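--- STAGE predict ---
source: upstream dedup step, 1 unique chain passed
mode: sequence only
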Amino acid sequence: MTSPPKGKVSLQDVAKEAGVSVSTVSRALSFPDRISKKTREKVLRIAQELGYHPNIAARNLRLGHSRTILAVMPNHKGSIISTVAGEAIAGIQKYISTQGYALSVVTTDFTTATSNHALDLVFGRQVSGVILFAAQPPASDGRDMLDAGLPMVSLTEDLAHLGIRSVVSSDRQSMIEAVGRLADLGHERFAFISGPPNSYHSTQREAGVRSGLLQRFGTDAGLTKIVADFSVDTGVSAAHQYLALTDRPSAVISWADEVALGFQSTVMTAGLSIPRDLSLISFDGLHALRFLRPSISTYDQSPGRLGGFAAQLLVEEIETGTPPEARLIEIPAAFRPGDSLAPPR
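--- STAGE serialize ---
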């Protein structure tokens, strides 16, 4: 080990001696649960040997006095993601305004330019904490948002494996319940309209459908899976695939409301009746579903409520300065009945 630097020891001195970045040192000292044990122990040992003493007042200034929360959202204009996120943002804004915080929203398509904008705000300590609406934190040019050491909560995605407390809706359990409702009506043949393969929510909801079938019928082998995406248009495509089936399932579960909108409109235009010819149930809780004829039964995840709860968790962490144990918090979705369910003919 080299001789300790003369004068006041800085984060840069510790980082240089440890052979890591300044952000890694900051993370090891402020949020030790978000860094590997080996690196954390090395940084703490070197900090002690060098006689580094963090400036708590300066740290509090960096972390707290901006009193701004950053929401990072993927750029999916015109899709269910943007609709749900918009309601969640309103819930976040409602809560943090009562706590004296402002809200800054950044949309990113995870290109270098859009990621760097969000990273500049975080590493520049222009925000006090982050609510993330994405499958991973932005990273670009050697910077990862996790390394900034700011309090962070994931909303709608499970990032607990990254040490980020995550708030999600009860996707899996809701779909288990949906299968039960349809089975109670007498349905035995099911179709599931999924989202894209890389969607956390579609994966969880499909797993719930399959679990529900296993619990009720002992097998999920008869499930018909139709792949869609986020939009109404892909619901139209899913409907055409359903109409082409020679033996159509009498129960259809859509992974998302906007997809269900396109599906319902198309099958009814083709001459089928809902719920006489098939029953349809969905997930998200879009208000527009109430005004359809027939209205679609759905599970309402109440994005505004999710956003408000995530904001409360984040503000508590900012104010206390103590990161909680990372865990997944599932908020139950509420079943909202429509006119799209009936016994099979």
